[in-house]
Design a protein that fits this description.
The structure is a homodimer of 320-residue chains. Chain A is built from ten helices and 14 strands. In chain A, helix 2 crosses helix 4. The interface between A and B is medium-sized, with 23 and 23 residues.
Chain lengths: 320, 320
């Protein structure tokens, strides 16, 4: 039987690299798009098993040519400005990459006969502000985004659903909640903390950690569970449907910090860094994951403790 | 006292031209942007009272320069691909003009000290599909757009609200339901019908009218009431708030057709033209207008009969 084939945009990124591993492990032929000369260290262990092609996702004609050359069974569209905090600093680029980039890939996918699924990666950040703020969200929760990232992903998801409905494109929509793990960059809170712990352990930073607001609560998964969800949406997701990928529980950033401090080999003090305070943050994000569990067999295999330990070990290696 | 000043993007368009008249009547100094050599016949009677500047809304630097040169008290951002049916035929242009164009104007407005209000024109089309389909919508109804126009306006409104919240831009958001009147082009249903009646009356079309789906119900206002609402949102709207501009009632397209047929000077037969059937249409759009009535003093002054009579007379002049 012919192996299934997948094209991953953003393959060199955090989730992209784990998705590539997940798909290789499950017998896929994996291709991926690389922007300019972006670093490929996230995929260095699997690079010999991958077909890589250069692509600027903002060029519609190039997107079309790449898709038409590779003719994948599945397109996993992960290329994005993925950091909420960075999106405030590069609003326009966030809208361009996340919205126009998605539109370009949808257009390219539409012209590919035999495509089995276009998997779009949405985000729980699209929910923004809602009431009551502590409620557990289902996939029906309306969007009310408050960050450029959230606005861009909301628009991109809406245009993806339009392509499903109007152009009969077989799409699957993942709506992941926060996820972390090794390889995530330090614009995200868990690697920002883990990196500082590692720097303090080797004496490259004084024994004081700089943190932002510790009160937000987030539904934190391991990236390895999330990319398994992406594969399952490709294989089993009902066309046009949206799936939460989450744990169903929310923990505060303070809990994350305390857990990391316990894993640290040195005693560490904590101080607030105002530059790390994000404007108008969402107090709680917690996602009901029953639909993915029941329809796809989605499972949480990694505990928060596992994720934090692995992420800290990753940064211990990085800072050496 | 110094006259208030307003800049209207899309001033040569249907609603733009009426808004210019509304503002002139109420003592404003009115400027407007014109794209390339687009026709100015909609504003021919007031053109001597207007300051017109050339602008391609897709050029961020040009938007900035125009806003900074005119330094208006109010910016009414109307420039858009405004036809739902046309948006299916020019998806990308719709996203570009309606989203990127709004972003460019927001960016330009943000740098203008003393701006009193940036009035963004959203759309009831953003609501898309909802349940039950016959319900009367309030401003809290979530967006679930099904047309490129709806997706583009939803994204543009979300980014406008982001500018209000994050950049403290004083914005007012109009969310008009369908509106018509003289000068609207024939991509919209009422002028499409009225034009055919006029053509048939003078013998330039056989006695058969071509129509699309007559079952959708729409909340139909007169453009002259809607642009009065835009002015009121500028003057009295609470910053960051959204206001429905609507009648609170919905009538079927069949009722519109029957009323026009009664106004016609000839007996006219009706036939369905499949090319006029719009994909996945919204069955009913009806908007609760209490917020605008109570907070702004918004009023419906024109009946549907008035609007249809005036529109038919306009087309009788046009086809001569």
């Amino acid at each position: 039987m012919k192996k299934p084939s997948a094209l991953i945009t953003g393959i060199t990124g955090f989730a992209g690299s784990y998705l590539a591993e997940e798909l290789l492990t499950h017998g896929y032929t994996v291709s991926g798009t690389v922007y300019n000369n972006e670093p490929t260290n996230n995929i260095k262990n699997i690079i010999k098993d991958l077909q890589l092609v250069a692509l600027d996702i903002l060029k519609p004609e190039k997107c079309r040519r790449v898709v038409n050359k590779i003719k994948p069974d599945y397109i996993f569209h992960l290329a994005a400005i993925a950091s909420v905090s960075q999106s405030f600093k590069m609003e326009r680029l966030t809208f361009n990459i996340n919205f126009d980039g998605t539109l370009n890939m949808l257009e390219a996918a539409r012209e590919l006969p035999g495509l089995k699924k276009f998997i779009f990666i949405g985000s729980a950040e699209c929910y923004g502000i809602f009431s009551p703020p502590e409620k557990t969200l289902t996939e029906n929760q309306p969007f009310n985004p408050i960050s450029p990232y959230g606005v861009s992903k909301a628009a991109a998801e809406q245009v993806t659903r339009y392509y499903a409905r109007h152009h009969q494109l077989p799409v699957g929509i993942a709506r992941p909640f926060n996820h972390s793990g090794p390889r995530q960059n330090e614009h995200f809170v868990i690697p920002a903390f883990a990196r500082q712990v590692a720097l303090i352990e080797v004496g490259r930073q004084g024994p004081v950690m700089k943190v932002g607001d510790l009160s937000p609560q987030r539904d934190l998964s391991d990236v390895r569970d999330i990319v398994c969800g992406y594969r399952l949406i490709g294989e089993k997701g009902r066309p046009g449907e949206v799936y939460h990928l989450s744990t169903g529980k929310a923990v505060s950033i303070k809990t994350v910090l305390d857990t990391l401090l316990k894993l640290a080999h040195k005693t560490i003090k904590v101080t607030t860094d105002k530059s790390r305070l994000r404007p108008n943050d969402i107090p709680v994000l917690r996602g009901n994951n029953k639909k993915a569990v029941q329809q796809l067999g989605f499972k949480i295999r990694y505990s928060l403790q596992d994720t934090l330990q692995d992420t800290l070990n990753y940064w211990r290696n990085q800072v050496q």
